[in-house]
Design a protein that fits this description.
This protein is mostly helical. The protein has one domain. It contains 4 helices and no strands. The longest helix is centred in the first third of the chain and has 16 residues. Pfam families: Vinculin.
Amino acid sequence: MNAVVLTVKASYVASTKYQKVYGTAAVNSPVVSWRMKAPEKKPLVKREKPEECQTRVRRGSQKKHISPVQALSEFKAMDSF
């Protein structure tokens, strides 16, 4: 961004301070000639690739289904001690 500000400042100074005086044709002709190539346009927001947007969903470990009778039998076995 600093380079842009310095370029604009230099072009303003060149166009206001150093003017050619050749009559009325000099007023309409540009004083500063640009020899720089315009930079490539880049998007402001970086777009993600479709492959990166979708994350893989992994299956969790399957839960063992224990019947309520078996769960209660574990507690009854502990009470008998």
